[in-house]
């Protein structure tokens, strides 16, 4: 069975700073993927991670699932079932069990080809990284509805530049309930607005080791696979240290110490838990730390934000 391993990342655009990409129609041209990001709201950085290493990370992702001892076997498609897996949400995200801090997840966050892309976007080496989720887009999750043949990221091309107008026009609409105001769910009326304003939904195509970037204002969602190819991804998001407060950094250190996730926000706007809930009750599987603890390089340790905390 073929498997794809990707790194996915939403750009968290915060307070403007000199030399950052503005992504507001005033940036110049660069002759590379940045032009795609500025124009379309998303981009694919080809080969950000060498293919052989990407496939190694895919193997590690599947080994992690097998380590829970619940019956999952990568060679037996029938075991891709909630009863034989740790708790993975309907979007394919593994959020608990210390998984955000597994050594291979940190290796991906530390990949030079991944970090350098964000250094180009933000024009700084002083970055924070999110402690984000692993995503398993299995082709054989029979309990989920069928969708695109290999699943993946769907984006509304160019709609990031319509964001301000959209929210002005739709400000009177009742929002879909969300656990955080940073998440915005599109209603039928919102989807119709995007269509009427030229929004085009694109399935982003990529190969093992590609980095998928998108502006967080770009309407997007992911879908499970329905063909024969699994789609495995790690979410990782970066932002300049300068855009985080000391309170943010202290909160981020607490998340590091507890080995919990922080969602897409690199400044740890939200911190998660390692207690997974199965059918409304705490899962019988308890992991409060990663199975394989990371040993961080100096560069990776800086990404935690801890060295920037003022004593």
UniProtKB/TrEMBL annotation:
One Pfam family hit: PhyH
Domain of life: Eukaryota
Protein name: Phytanoyl-CoA dioxygenase
